[in-house]
Amino acid sequence: xxxxxxxxxxxxxxxxxxxxxxxxxxxxxxxxxxxxxxxxxxxxxxxxxxxxxxxxxxxxxxxxxxxxxxxxxxxxxxxxxxxxxxxxxxxxxxxxxxxxxxxxxxxxxxxxxxxxxxxxxxxxxxxxxxxxxxxxxxxxxxxxxxxxxxxxxxxxxxxxxxxxxxxxxxxxxxxxxxxxxxxxxxxxxxxxxxxxxxxxxxxxxxxxxxxxxxxxxxxxxxxxxxxxxxxxxxxxxxxxxxxxxxxxxxxxxxxxxxxxxxxxxxxxxxxxxxxxxxxxxxxxxxxxxxxxxxxxxxxxxxxxxxxxxxxxxxxxxxxxxxxxxxxxxxxxxxxxxxxxxxxxxxxxxxxxxxxxxxxxxxxxxxxxxxxxxxxxxxxxxxxxxxxxxxx
Amino acid sequence: xxxxxxxxxxxxxxxxxxxxxxxxxxxxxxxxxxxxxxxxxxxxxxxxxxxxxxxxxxxxxxxxxxxxxxxxxxxxxxxxxxxxxxxxxxxxxxxxxxxxxxxxxxxxxxxxxxxxxxxxxxxxxxxxxxxxxxxxxxxxxxxxxxxxxxxxxxxxxxxxxxxxxxxxxxxxxxxxxxxxxxxxxxxxxxxxxxxxxxxxxxxxxxxxxxxxxxxxxxxxxxxxxxxxxxxxxxxxxxxxxxxxxxxxxxxxxxxxxxxxxxxxxxxxxxxxxxxxxxxxxxxxxxxxxxxxxxxxxxxxxxxxxxxxxxxxxxxxxxxxxxxxxxxxxxxxxxxxxxxxxxxxxxxxxxxxxxxxxxxxxxxxxxxxxxxxxxxxxxxxxxxxxxxxxxx
Lengths: 391, 391
Hints:
2 copies of one chain form a homodimer.
Chain A: H1 3-7, E1 26-27, H2 30-35, E2 40-56, E3 59-65, E4 73-78, E5 91-100, E6 108-119, H3 136-139, H4 150-172, E7 176-177, E8 183-184, E9 195-199, E10 215-217, H5 222-232, E11 234-242, E12 255-263, H6 269-290, H7 292-302, H8 306-315, E13 319-322, H9 323-331, H10 349-358, E14 364-367
Parallel strand pairs in A: 1-2, 4-6, 7-11, 13-14
Antiparallel strand pairs in A: 2-3, 2-5, 3-4, 5-6, 8-10, 9-10, 11-12
Helix pairs in contact in A: 4-6, 4-7, 6-8
Keywords (chains A, B): Aminoacyl-tRNA synthetase, ATP-binding, Ligase, Mitochondrion, Nucleotide-binding, Protein biosynthesis, Transit peptide
InterPro entries (chains A, B): Aa-tRNA-synt_II, aa-tRNA-synth_II, aa-tRNA-synth_II/BPL/LPL, Asn-tRNA-ligase, NA-bd_OB-fold, NA-bd_OB_tRNA
Domain Aminoacyl-transfer RNA synthetases class-II family profile (chains A, B): 156-391
């Protein structure tokens, strides 16, 4: 049924290793083809999945997408091609000439000379329908296919780009990357409920002997990173983290990726906040410049107004307010909170959201917390712990 | 006892946020200081750990290392400094002028104007001794300190560089990075014994309800990646992988990082082998050019001859031989194997090692295996399965 499957790991072995088959035309990703400025009939081959089919008089228009970008490449074929096999969802290999497009919708299009259906797709059986917008809840049933939709494709391209940007930022700024362990016997600062790990029940013999101590999935690489910063000064990790919290919410995941960094010889909290601000901004800039169409799609259909918020964030310095100031702002708010803000009590999500709105939708650092609200190892201010409200 | 600890997360809060303390001199990493070509008395501050102390007439020579490179920066101080506190292992902040060194051993040195001991180190209690080479087995007792030795520092810098190079290679070649899940209910192709995951025993209530199905730690992201390659064409993952194999050997780890990639529309096995060869070479080149001193250290003290092998690998194309050829080579070998090579039986480590030596210490791809030795989903050659020896 599905085109891609046939070619996954589809490895035809040539009889002669040193002499690969000569290629009639160069393979090109859709993303690269779309960027060609003055197309002059370059002979190229594109491979991907058909996203739309349209017949118009003697001409057949196809859109082919290979996941390298949100945009598809328009294929123009004449009536000599049999359109019956060229169905939505099929995977094809198209060879032809890259030419300037007549339409204003795109720069270039591919004038097909040869179209090969690699995997056909039966519309009735295919759960994703042509020209329909599917709710995410519906797509959840098809984890093996949903990434061929615009929404999931865009989100995963953005994630990939953001991941690369995070690695680049730290590398460019002299941080050593550390793979902190996933299996660990420490539960860090008690950041959350732990998953315990044991050899599967299929293994014979006493399980206790595998690890000498109970083994858990990491909730944070912080302790390992702190040790490493005592040798490399600046270190970071970006790996999977786990919480055994059985909550169904946007804020609770059993498994998620977390960025952590530790810096020795830091002189002020400002130095740390600067690193965090730069990391956010560098990552956002990279995503906006490398995936503008994907961001636009999220902006329009997934998180309305997101693009404007990101651009606004990039143009402004992050704000820094003290815990005492934050409580004052919250006390004066016209909004009714489920939890009444009170000095000495931790901030709730509703409070944090209000503070960000109050500060003009720019990220806000809240510093100088009462020491009672923080873990034992947090460094106290030089004027001593502050556990009572001061004017 | 240990300098670093005192400053880990050492965050002095300034009373005024907008007005950071003016700095007398620019902070510089040791790595960057060592690269200054024509030092002309630039005013810089370096922070790190003392690696050596030497008094000579009226002059005190220190070597300070911050983990940014294997090499330390030489600090030259006059007799006005009290050398009693400047002990091996202490962490210091040194301010001074970067000048051309009189010695041929280094380009630059730092003429100290101010040396501040941030954390002192008591030589007797410190398990790493000045000028001693410690066996790795000894250092294993001190996981929180061993990274301050040359050997562990070099290995972790190389790992960090290799990690960055792997991400760069795939990104530069149009692969989408996918975080394949660590928690999974599939055991892939049965690649190894599984770890099972359950909420820790501290959690009350029925554990069975957390996941609907038994949950394991991934042994491979292959199946997830294959699905993703059906949307993005080229995908990769580089994450932690787990095996519950209770073997104490160099080849068995409970947790390790694995690179996996999947490509749709591959036309020949050669295309795949080319990606693998390019990945190896790009990563090796990056490590050799970015960490030459670290590689040299490993070459001299850890893996003798390693550097030459890497350079040899870079200069040559990887070889490709068929399984039948491999068996022929092994049969003609003068070496006695623990497992006699036989057509139809899988290759052992001793066989693989011999084949690499036979081929001149260049990586070798062995292709065209008998189909019986491979998993069910491997694509058969176009001339059909080969399960008997052919001439």
